[in-house]
Write a structure and sequence with these properties.
single chain, 10 helices, six-stranded antiparallel sheet, eight-stranded mixed sheet, Elongation Factor Tu (Ef-tu), domain 3, 2 domains, alpha+beta, Aminopeptidase
């Protein structure tokens, strides 16, 4: 498997929260060769099913596939677009950014702002407000209205860039990197014997409502859930106790949102497979799909694997491709270790 090409395909596709259809289609094409069945539920989640040898138990792998972005809130007579944000976006990074307006046809644009020449000395030191920013597509009002309406999503537009030392930068690596890792896990499982049925779910709307994780947990009713998401890579401004080295480790979360016994078993498998990890202390809700899955139905034992990413929620998120591979390997080996005595092992 060319995991770099998988990651490039996923991260280059568009799929804002509640507008995920484009990237879901790409994900289906990529994971289908390693699945026994594919379906979409009423919420829109894409599920890839892989039959286990025994089929008495079920394990869910959940990775959210949506991304943050913008949404058109106004169309001005001069052809400029006003917008609101979808998900956690820092307005300070937006001026000058390239975007794609996802109307009836995709229209490239740039985000403009008030030139510094027309700002007061006091205003130059302040961050822009949303009212100071706009999207310029180059089209006039009449032509723009034929393709764009209020509520049209707008995505970051960036190149998938290969850096040095196996690092790559792109938009939406949170959480397309984990989606690529799940595809890699399903690929690895084709070479392993596993007793449990596997449900790999690309979940929707994690960035805002966590709808996909909640419904995935309910619909699959698994005996165990493995959630994969992004976490903070070490960089200037990220505290050392909250950031992780993107070159060397995954993280395994511990806290009240995660099942302690299942987490210890995951750590044991990582050590057996010589996959480096660090504990990510999660004292409250994890802010991931694990939050909704854990309390679904009668309660679902849940573990969380995270991939460190620099420049979170920007158009240049950065990851080491080894994190994707190792997360996929760890997930597959963990699933292959599961048997009918899992409840005793998790105690």
């Amino acid at each position: 498997m060319d995991i770099v090409e998988v990651l490039k395909t996923l991260s280059s596709s568009y799929g804002l929260t509640s507008f995920e259809d484009d990237v879901i289609k790409k994900a289906e094409e990529l994971i289908s060769p390693y699945a026994d069945g594919i379906n979409r539920d009423k919420a829109g989640n894409l599920t890839a099913f892989k039959k286990g040898i025994e089929g008495k138990n079920k394990v869910l792998i959940a990775t959210h596939i949506d991304e943050i972005g913008l949404i058109v809130s106004g169309i001005e007579k001069n052809g400029l677009l006003r917008f609101s944000t979808v998900g956690g976006i820092d307005l300070r990074i937006l001026p000058g950014m390239e975007v794609m307006v996802l109307g009836k046809e995709n229209i490239p644009g740039v985000i403009g702002s008030i030139p510094p020449h027309f700002q007061s000395e006091d205003d130059r030191g302040k961050p822009y407000g949303r009212e100071d920013l706009y999207i310029d597509t180059g089209l006039d009002y009449t032509k723009l209205k034929k393709s764009v309406e209020i509520g049209t999503p707008v995505a970051y537009r960036s190149r998938f860039t290969e850096l040095k030392n196996k690092k790559f930068a792109s938009k939406s690596l949170d959480n397309r990197a984990s989606c690529a890792a799940m595809i890699y896990a399903m690929y690895e499982l084709t070479k392993l014997k596993h007793k449990w049925d596997v449900f790999g779910v690309f979940t929707l709307q994690e960035e805002y409502t966590m709808l996909g994780g909640k419904t995935a947990g309910f619909n699959t009713d698994p005996d165990l859930a493995i959630v994969m998401d992004a976490t903070f890579g070490l960089q200037p401004g990220v505290p050392k106790d909250e950031g992780f080295d993107i070159d060397s480790v995954l993280t395994i979360a511990r806290g009240p949102n995660l099942h302690p016994g299942a987490t210890r078993e995951l750590m044991h498998i990582a050590e057996e497979e010589h996959i480096k990890y660090e504990i990510e202390v999660t004292p409250g809700m994890s802010g991931t799909d694990a939050t909704g899955i854990q309390i679904s139905r009668r309660g679902i034992p849940t573990v969380l694997i995270s991939l460190p990413i620099r420049n979170m929620h920007t158009s240049s998120e950065t990851i080491n491709i080894n994190s994707v591979i190792n997360a996929g390997k760890l997930t597959a080996r963990y699933i292959a270790s599961l048997d009918e005595n899992y409840e005793n092992r998790f105690e």
